[in-house]
Design goal:
With 1135 residues, this protein is α/β, with parallel strands linked by helices. It folds into seven domains: 32 residues; 116 residues; 92 residues; 144 residues, no CATH class; 209 residues, no CATH class; 254 residues, Rossmann fold, CATH 3.40.50.200; 104 residues, no CATH class. It contains 39 helices and 23 strands. The strands form six sheets. Strands 1, 2, 3, 6, 7, 8, 9 and 10 form an eight-stranded parallel sheet that branches. Helix 31 links the parallel strand 12 and strand 13. It is globular.
């Protein structure tokens, strides 16, 4: 019993009158013991006193063992006193963590381990999340406790819970240790910290703090990564990323890359901090360059001002200099600063400028001399180095590091160095990514660059398209192409597919890394043979020479890959080419397509002109030579081989000089997938041939790899190897090649067939709706307006942004109107297996039709194609609400002015509570709050009501509900609930725009979906007319500011729902059907088209446009303008 316990018992004994001869000793003892237990169970005694009483007093001072401590005291140490919000400590573990540095480290380690093990076991049983013990210990200098926990195997099972515990700000030990390192000049993560964090479970890695940041957000900080300089750190990040993704299918929310509350993923945090570091270094270079220029100018000025010394003056000056050196030290130092320093500084500057080798400096390199020093005052002083070795600073601030100083001089010497420094910045996070070694910019950290690229590739490999976009580019999903799926173009000619790639490149840029490229088969067009010219011998006897015959195989994919390379594509994670049609591409064509050069089979070294790196090779050509793959994809990780059944081919692939040698020289190669066909042999025999192939491939690969290891070992013994000696024990740890066999249904090579050309006659010019025809005529008149503005050098015309939410848009079927249309998109369809579904394909061409209906009215728009998930059911088309909600959210993020939704979803009790319906309603409400004009279709089923279908039911009396009209404006009887419909537009036998260059038969379309797209186009046309007038009115702004102000309000006001309704209601015509819900466009737009077309006077054309805008905006509320938040969504976002 400790002294405190004895005193406490004495006090209790006095209160109970335990002294005296008549007191029974046993009874008194029981009362005392009972009272002592009551005291320990008293909640008023804080946990710190309890813990010190047992651990410090009993175990350390009194020499007791843990097993000797009473059970009630042990249990009392496990009681919880709440969290740390009130300043108290929750448990005994926290008390030990707090005072370990001062007290508990003195306790004999075996005893302390016993205490900690007991407390941790009880904590695990309680299953509670508490204030982080590890964080508390480290903050109180208790690193010894962390070392103890990390080193002892008995504590290994408790580490995951300890690392996961969070403080009130939501940060666990991973958050803490990374932020601590950052705040302490980016110290390295090593030692006991590494032993603890290596055991961090998934819940710790994906935990979000009060800002939504996971530990990966802090770990990917570029400055922090630059400080680590350790392969172990990057391996740790790999472990965290993979651990966070473990079982992610069962936990779709918590996974690696979870964005924070500012919608910034760990990769985006890496990009941001990378650019911030580069900007800081750039500013530092500018500052140092300015200092160097000032020094050079000051030195030159003094040299010019100094008189030429004579012999007599030099003799007089020598005694003074000797006196200065032997006299007052302060005067000597002052004299040194006055005279010696400029010459010394100039010499150093000249030395650093010597031997210019790069357009801008790199750390440790020599750079060129500045050709023209800038003008600067002469007041700059830089102190010389202290002779004692101490670092001397000046009033100008701390001296720069040598590498920065050298870069500064180069920065001053080269005009445009600023551009060179920023040339490595990532454009759109996908273009122009810099390589620290390739570009020579050593201001970028090689390890940090590698880890950032690794995380980017990890997202591309493991995430569906839409999710990868958000992680790489942010909440506003970028229209950057991160994959290329051309499978929907199967059957088209090669030049048509190439034209599609070119068109897609105009619409949206390509990332330099594509997650996959899928190229379908296409018809073969043989190369025509040209006869060789006749040649004659000396005696005039002629003989026919054989012409060089063109190859019988295909060459068509060469220009396609040339185009991809010109678009900046450097890496394809998964390449799939259907080359099974006869004849296949030649080996030379395959090599040239991927490398830009051709392999010489007889040459030892085959230089590659350029390379598109392939990770997974799936070129579906039978019996393809492995040397071709090795040359075209030297770093391939997974290769697919297609076997026609020829046994010789299998023997060749398994021979030592084939795939085994490739495996030995390419350490990335892990998997070979054999797509086997029995060919002419029976299946059992073919299976035995395949089994023999697998056996030989594994044995020969192992043999070739061991030969490589022996060669490395021999070089290491001679000290000539680039491999570290420490890797010697790991050289043989490589896993054997994984061989996967798949039996195909394809029987041998495709048979030779004659390509058939389908003849088609020119389609008849379709009979258009008069309503559509008048608007198309006005579109032609607007082309004249655009020409007028171009001649006036008016280029800043705000384009109306229209989002069409449908099943995508086939770009090959889109009418571009001489490239007036600008279209991009995002797919919100979930992937099918490993294949994404791109936005530039339309499953039923419904979306393509809707986009063409909008652009035929006004092609000068920014069109956003938001592809949603749909399907076919017995009753027709099925729209999936969750996908539709995501598409609407995407349209909002892209700053759409108009959203067109030509579909309906039944909203009833059976699906009203489904998550997708709730998300869709929420997205529609959000679009309404942002002031976006919504156009949606009425149902073409007469038995449905307005309140029973989405999207209208979520924004009643706000969304424009459009019904179908017949050719003369009559309301279509099949359209339900006419009272809830805002307008009727053509929706019966509406012909597509006739394209004379297309052999496709003109299609006619029915239904309110077509009417909705035309109505959205009409609204966009009204807004575009106002924007054209506003662009031209800039030159009249100063002359008539009041008029311009009204015009500004009219243009902005048209983005308000009530004002747009007023504008559409202002469309009137004499003799029009007496239906206020059918806008007679032939009046205002038809007359204006005639007036603009009849005159050549530019001012008269613009006057007609002004009259159109004035009539449309007559009576709109000038006090109502567009919601500013919509613009801020795009222009004011964080990144």
């Amino acid at each position: 019993m400790s002294n405190d316990d004895e005193l406490f018992v004495d006090d209790i004994g006095q209160e109970l009158d335990l002294g005296g001869e008549d007191t029974d000793d046993d009874y008194a003892g029981s009362v005392v013991e009972e009272s002592e237990e009551m005291r320990w169970l008293n909640k008023n005694v804080d946990i710190e006193r309890r813990c010190k009483s047992v651990v410090i007093d009993s175990l350390w001072k009194d020499g007791n063992e843990w097993d000797d401590i009473e059970d009630y005291k042990k249990k009392a140490l496990c009681e919880r006193f709440g969290r740390d919000s009130d300043g108290s400590l929750p448990t005994a573990l926290h008390a030990i963590a707090k005072d370990y540095y001062h007290d508990y480290h003195k306790v004999p380690q075996p005893k302390l381990i016993a205490v900690l093990k007991y407390l941790l076991e009880e904590k695990a049983k309680a299953k509670v999340v508490e204030q982080s013990i590890l964080t508390l210990a480290d903050s109180k200098k208790g690193s010894g406790l962390l070392i103890l926990l990390g080193n002892e195997a008995d504590f290994r099972q408790y580490i995951p819970d300890l690392v996961s515990d969070t403080n009130s700000n939501g940060r666990n030990f991973l958050h803490y240790i990374l932020l601590k390192k950052k705040n302490n000049q980016y110290q390295q993560l090593k030692g006991f910290e590494g032993k603890l964090v290596i055991h961090a479970p998934k819940r710790a890695v994906v935990a979000q703090d009060e800002d939504g940041n996971t530990p990966l957000h802090y770990a990917m900080n570029y400055d922090y990564m630059s400080s680590q300089k350790s392969e172990g750190y990057y391996k740790l990040l790999h472990i965290w990323i993979q651990r966070a993704d473990a079982d992610r299918d069962g936990d779709p929310v918590k996974k690696a890359g979870l964005p924070n509350y500012a919608d910034e993923s760990p990769y985006m945090a890496w990009v941001r901090t990378r650019e911030e570091q580069k900007l800081r270094k750039k500013k530092e270079l500018e500052r140092l360059a300015e200092i160097a220029a000032k020094n050079a100018e000051s030195t030159q000025s003094r040299e010019k001002a100094a008189p030429t010394p004579t012999m007599e003056s030099e003799q007089k000056q020598q005694p003074q200099q000797q006196q200065t050196r032997s006299g007052d030290p302060h005067r000597a130092r002052h004299h040194y600063n006055q005279t010696s320093q400029p010459q010394q500084q100039q010499a150093e500057y000249a030395a650093m400028q010597k031997d210019k080798k790069a357009p801008y400096a790199v750390a440790g390199s020599r750079v060129g001399r500045s050709e023209k020093p800038s003008n600067a005052p002469r007041t700059l002083r830089v102190q010389p180095p202290d002779p004692s070795g101490a670092r001397v600073t000046s009033s100008m601030g701390p001296p720069p590091t040598p590498s920065i100083a050298k870069q500064a001089n180069a920065f001053a010497s080269k005009k445009g160095a600023s551009a060179a420094l920023s040339s490595g910045a990532k454009k759109g996070h996908g273009e122009g990514k810099s390589d620290a070694t390739a570009e020579g910019d050593q201001s970028l950290d090689e390890g940090a660059e590698k880890m950032g690229e690794t995380l980017r590739l990890y997202y591309l490999r493991t995430r569906p398209d839409l999710e990868a976009r958000k992680l790489l580019y942010g909440k506003v999903a970028s229209d950057m192409n991160i994959y290329l799926d051309l499978s929907h173009l199967k059957g088209l000619a090669a030049d048509q597919i190439l034209a599609f790639i070119q068109r897609l490149a105009v619409v949206s840029k390509f990332d330099d890394t594509l997650s996959y490229v899928s190229i379908p088969s296409f018809p073969f067009v043989p190369v025509k043979e040209t006869p060789a010219p006749k040649r004659y011998t000396a005696n005039q006897s002629s003989r026919r020479e054989n012409a060089a015959k063109p190859p019988k195989g295909r060459q068509s994919l060469v220009p396609m890959f040339d185009k991809l390379h010109s678009l900046g594509v450097k890496k394809i994670l998964r390449l799939q080419v259907d080359d099974t049609e006869y004849p296949a591409h030649t080996d030379e064509a395959i090599e040239k397509a991927l490398t830009g050069s051709v392999r010489d089979p007889l040459a030892g070294d085959n230089p590659i002109r350029r390379l598109i790196d392939i990770e997974a090779w799936d070129w579906r050509k039978f019996d393809l030579c492995s040397d071709v793959i090795q040359y075209a994809a030297p770093q391939v990780e997974k290769m697919h081989l297609y076997w026609s059944g020829n046994p010789t081919v299998l023997k060749g692939w398994a021979s030592k000089d084939s795939i085994p040698k490739f495996y030995a020289t390419n350490e990335n190669l892990k998997t070979v997938v054999l797509h086997a066909d029995q060919g002419l042999e029976k299946r059992p025999r073919a299976e035995k041939l395949v089994a023999l192939f697998v056996k030989n491939l594994l044995e020969n690969s192992r043999s070739e790899w061991m030969n490589v290891l022996e060669a490395r070992q021999e070089k290491m013994m001679k000290g000539k190897s680039d491999h570290k000696k420490s890797d010697g024990g790991k050289l043989d740890s490589r896993q054997p090649i994984d061989v996967d066999v798949k039996w195909n249904s394809i029987s041998g090579l495709a048979t030779e067939a004659t390509n058939k050309t389908v003849a088609s006659n020119r389609p008849d010019v379709p009979q258009q709706h008069k309503w559509v025809e008048h608007l198309e005529n006005f579109r032609g008149a607007l082309k004249d307006i655009h020409d007028v503005l171009a001649r006036r050098n008016v280029t800043k015309i705000r384009r109306v942004k229209v989002a069409v939410i449908d099943d995508g848009c086939s770009l090959g079927q889109l009418n571009w109107y001489n490239d007036a249309v600008k279209v991009t998109g995002v797919s919100y369809c979930p992937p099918q297996g490993d294949e994404n579904i791109p936005w530039y394909t339309s499953s039923g061409e419904h979306g393509t039709t809707m986009v063409n209906m909008v652009t035929r009215i006004v092609p000068w728009v920014d069109m956003f194609v938001m592809k949603l998930e749909d399907g076919v059911s017995a009753g027709g088309r099925t729209i999936y609400p969750r996908s539709a909600a995501q598409a609407i959210e995407g349209a909002i993020s892209h700053g759409a002015d108009i959203i067109s939704m030509s579909w309906t979803i039944k909203h009833n009790q059976s699906n009203g509570d489904s998550p997708g319906i709730a998300e869709l309603e929420s997205a529609i409400q959000k679009a309404k709050r942002r002031g976006i004009l919504l156009f949606c279709s009425a149902s073409d089923e007469i038995d449905e009501g307005a309140t029973g279908s989405l999207p209208y039911s979520a924004a009643k009396k706000y969304a424009f509900r459009i019904g179908a009209a017949l050719s003369y404006g009559q309301r279509d009887a099949a359209t339900e609930d006419h009272s809830s419909i805002d307008y009727f537009c053509p929706g019966n036998q509406v012909a597509e725009t006739w394209n004379p260059r297309s052999d496709k038969t003109v299609q006619y379309h029915d239904g309110s979906s077509v009417a909705t797209a035309l109505a959205a186009g009409l609204a966009a046309l009204i807004m575009h007319c106002a924007e054209l007038l506003r662009a031209d009115a800039e030159r009249r702004r100063d002359a008539d500011p009041k008029w311009y102000e009204i015009l500004e309000h009219n243009c902005d006001g048209l983005r308000v729902r009530s004002n747009m309704k007023t504008a559409i209601d202002n469309i009137k015509a004499d003799g029009a059907p007496d239906d206020p819900k059918f806008p007679p466009v032939w009046g205002i737009f038809g007359n204006a088209a005639l007036a603009i077309g009849e005159t050549r006077d530019a001012d008269a054309k613009m006057k007609t446009l002004e009259e159109v805008v004035n009539q449309l905006t007559l009576g709109i509320d000038l006090k109502k303008t567009a919601v500013p938040l919509r613009k801020a969504t795009v222009k004011g976002r964080r990144r």
